[in-house]
Design a protein that fits this description.
heterodimer; A: mainly alpha; 13 helices; 74% helix; elongated; B: alpha/beta; Rossmann fold; Alpha-Beta Plaits; six-stranded mixed beta sheet; four-stranded antiparallel beta sheet; 11 helices; 14 strands; 30% helix; globular
Chain lengths: 291, 372
């Protein structure tokens, strides 16, 4: 039977501004919780420095005394500054790694915490719950990037903040959209299968082995180069290296930017579709509350 | 009674008659309109089970070892909840109460049937439904333990689209009224279970919704906290809000609810006021025995005694004895035989002819207890 509505929630004032306020409240909540685990803050300061150390010393050992063995490396990459080369690649990879863990596991963490349904009960856009958290993760990611560059400047005397900063910002912006799209899809899959580790290892391994984090792609077998060609991180690492290490111009990295723009368009859409499908399935099966 | 939150009590709504007098569900002529309407609501889950023939090694493979089967969690349930009443769904665990409440609060999509909250369809207008109800689901982890009580409420106020000045005032009012103000700036992880539940209720009340859904609100609470929470629920009702409460505690349902739907195996098997439900079995005498060393194998014999309609035995761990309940049409006639049979192998501590409770209603309808 249809009844006439006589009451509504008198205190709420829904508008585009209130949705934005909700998004920022989610971001702020994530930031407060992040700060309340000091060990995370410590890890984000220490890990960027520790992570590439293994690669750097391997390269130093392989390069021989005074870099005498770096001729081939120089010929393939156009630089003998292998330290900067490794730092750029490993920092980009580390950033992707943080994003996959943080954005991808956000919904699952909420689910395990028991608060996911509580958020879902609110009249807020579902995607805001994911995006609000992403804002905080992005800021934390930028903080980690800054820490990394400062630490490498101080410890190894390496400066990767060179070349055209506008181009670097553009590359980071485009690759961010791709990475957050992957994170969204990844988060949806984790929520669907309620198991994160296997997926994390798979995706992480794919990027680690194929994107040329510490080596030029030319040394990979051709089939691996084919896989690398469809991964956004490959183009991000390649173009950032070109800008920072060789001072490349916009025209020189245009092919990379075209690929990155394509990924930035497609991957967030795929991520959203995966998220929407997971949300629909959760409503059908009631799986949001499952542990 | 003083309204729960100053200035936010629900104003008297336009009333209209929705059912004729004596419609058989406890509703009288002139009563309030239905603010929650549930019609033929049904939820079927698909679940995996091991294949019947699983002797071969190939049945251990992930893709072959299980088959899918349907499980009807809620089976064509219909009811109305009228503005300003507390409506209870009473039934044992697994009866379908929580599934029903999850469909009403839009977390779960019905397989078929419809439900409307304040006129909004739970499937087609889910955002408007969420705006019109506050829900407290089972468990105390629905709020952030690493945030303070005030931070939790401020956060959810933003998600309910409260303007900042309104949110600030509302959070302060709720913290004060729910006696959480002095500890509002402590992490929730330091709160007692009762305090966590009160914060969860405060969260549900943030947007001043006309309808509140409470899923087993006192489960896991100590008796004092449960009493406090029941008093709070009564106060919320006195503000003019409508409350749907699920519980498997018959005393709670009896004390709080204006009307009760008794649920078993996904169906509402009786729906009326607590008094009417109990009156429906007044032709039965309820005989209760406290027995030490009772042999449950005797239940068959007791059940077979003339005039005994239902018999139920439950071990009370606190008291260290069995509580045996018999529903009979003539307690005087049957009592000597009961005492003789039970007393042969056990010690009867106490015999009592009791007033019927809601659990007796449930036993008379299903032949089993609420906590079975």
């Amino acid at each position: 039977m249809m009844v006439r509505r006589t009451q509504s929630s008198g205190l709420a004032r829904r508008s585009a501004a209130s949705h934005l306020a909700a998004l920022l409240a989610i971001a702020r909540k994530e930031w407060i919780i992040f700060r309340r685990y000091p060990s995370w803050v410590m890890a984000f300061v220490i890990w960027p420095l520790l992570y590439p150390v293994g690669y750097i010393f391997s390269a130093r050992a392989l390069g021989g005394p005074h870099g005498s063995g770096l001729t081939v490396f120089n010929r393939l990459t156009g630089t003998s500054d292998y330290l900067s080369y490794i730092v750029v690649g490993s920092t980009m990879y580390m950033w992707l790694n943080f994003t996959l863990w943080d954005v991808g596991l956000h919904l699952r963490n909420e689910q395990m915490r028991g608060t996911l349904e509580s958020n879902w009960l609110c009249p807020v856009w579902r995607i805001s719950i994911m995006l609000g958290s992403s804002i905080t993760k992005m800021l934390i990611g930028l903080f980690v990037l800054a820490v990394t560059f400062v630490e490498f400047r101080l410890v190894f005397g390496v400066s990767v903040v060179r070349g055209n900063p506008g181009l670097i910002a553009l590359i980071l912006l485009l690759v961010s959209a791709s990475i957050y799209g992957i994170g969204l899809a990844f988060g949806s899959l984790v929520l669907r299968f309620q198991e994160a580790n296997a997926l994390v290892f798979l995706v992480r391994g794919l990027f680690m082995g194929f994107c040329g984090i510490t080596y030029p792609l030319q040394i990979l077998p051709s089939w691996m180069q084919g896989v690398a060609a469809v991964l956004p991180l490959t183009y991000a690492i390649h173009s950032i290296r070109a800008v920072t290490l060789s001072g490349a111009s916009l025209a020189q990295i245009a092919p990379d930017l075209q690929w990155l723009a394509g990924f930035a368009l497609v991957l967030p859409m795929l991520g959203y579709l995966a998220f929407a499908a997971t949300e629909r399935r959760a409503r059908r099966t009631g799986s949001l509350g499952h542990y | 009674m003083e309204p729960l939150i100053q200035g936010t009590a629900i104003a008297p709504a336009e009333r209209r008659m929705i059912a004729p007098a004596g419609a058989g569900n406890g509703l009288q002529a002139g009563e309030a309109r239905a603010i929650v309407e549930v019609r033929d609501l049904r939820k079927i889950f698909r679940r995996k089970k091991p294949a019947a023939d699983s002797s071969g090694w190939w049945h251990r493979l992930p893709i072959t070892r299980r088959v899918s089967e349907e499980f009807v969690a809620v089976d064509t349930v219909s009811f109305d909840i009228h503005e300003g009443e507390i409506f209870g769904l009473l039934g044992p665990n697994g009866a379908g109460k929580t599934t029903t409440i999850r469909m009403l609060c839009t977390l779960l999509e019905p397989t078929s049937g419809t439900a409307r909250i304040n006129g909004y369809d739970v499937v087609k207008q889910s955002d408007a439904v969420r705006q019109n109800l506050g829900a407290v689901l089972t468990g105390e982890r629905s709020i952030y333990w690493k945030l303070t009580g005030r931070e939790n409420l401020s956060y959810f106020a933003a998600l309910y689209h409260l303007p900042p000045d309104v949110a600030k005032r509302r959070v302060r009012e709720l913290l004060e009224r729910l006696e959480l103000a002095t500890r509002a700036d402590e992490y929730v992880e330091r709160y007692s279970s009762g305090m966590k539940q009160r914060i969860a209720i405060a969260k549900a009340l943030l947007a001043n919704p006309p309808v509140l859904l409470l899923d087993e609100p006192t489960i896991g609470l100590d008796p004092q906290s449960a009493r406090t929470l029941r008093a709070l629920i009564s106060e919320i009702k006195d503000e003019g809000r409508t409350i749907l409460l699920t519980t498997h505690y018959m005393e709670e349902a009896d004390q709080l609810c204006d009307r009760i739907g008794i649920v078993d195996a996904g169906r509402i098997i009786a729906l009326d006021t607590p008094a009417n439900l109990k009156r429906s079995i007044t032709q039965l005498d309820i005989v209760q025995l406290d027995v030490e060393g009772f042999d449950p194998a005797l239940m068959g014999a007791l059940q077979g005694l003339p005039t005994v309609q239902h018999a139920l035995a439950r071990y009370d761990e606190d008291g260290g004895a069995w509580s045996v309940t018999l529903q009979t049409t003539d307690s005087r006639a049957v009592l000597p035989a009961v005492i003789e049979r039970v007393g042969r192998s056990a010690t009867i501590r106490n015999v009592n002819i009791a007033q019927p409770t809601l659990e007796d209603v449930f036993i008379s309808l299903t032949g089993k207890g609420l906590r079975d």
